[in-house]
What we know:
Layout: H1 2-15, E1 27-30, E2 40-48, E3 56-62, E4 72-73, E5 79-91, E6 97-108, E7 119-127, E8 133-137, E9 139-143, E10 153-157, E11 168-172
Antiparallel strand pairs: 1-2, 2-7, 3-6, 3-9, 4-7, 5-6, 8-11, 9-10
Amino acid sequence: MKKFVSLATVALVAAGIYVPLADAHATVNLLLGQATTASTATWFLRVPNERSNKSTFMVTMSVPAGIQQSISVRQTPGWKVSFTRVDTGQKDGEGNAIYNTTKITWRSLPGNLIYPGMYGAFEFRFKAPSTPGSLCFPVDQVYNGAGKGQANETVSWSGPSGSATPASCVSISA
């Protein structure tokens, strides 16, 4: 796993999309290339631990309406993924129900927390909308209590740009 993280970090730096931890929060970044209309690309959600005495054990990303039918997730070792889906009432060519994925939740398995000073990266793909615009991805990051019996802390990265807890937004160009 250490080798994978090192190679991934090198690839991100080389691609010019590495974001330093201090500027971070929860961010959605394109893995490679450019985000263009109607294209399918791989993205990742980067979630740094910004607490000195707590670890992140759960991350929930809200999926923008324009991509809810096309998003898929790469399995992340050490994390269980679950989906919140809504039946659209439509059927595909084989008669199967078509669902919108409205939220994706990653929950750490034992021993796989995002510890202080570290970050987690969660990969996903989607087909971009056919018109240019912005897609925003609100994220809830849940930290465990700092001590036994202490309450969990949820940080909602859902605010406007420039706020203390901004949602991550990406631009899709023509």
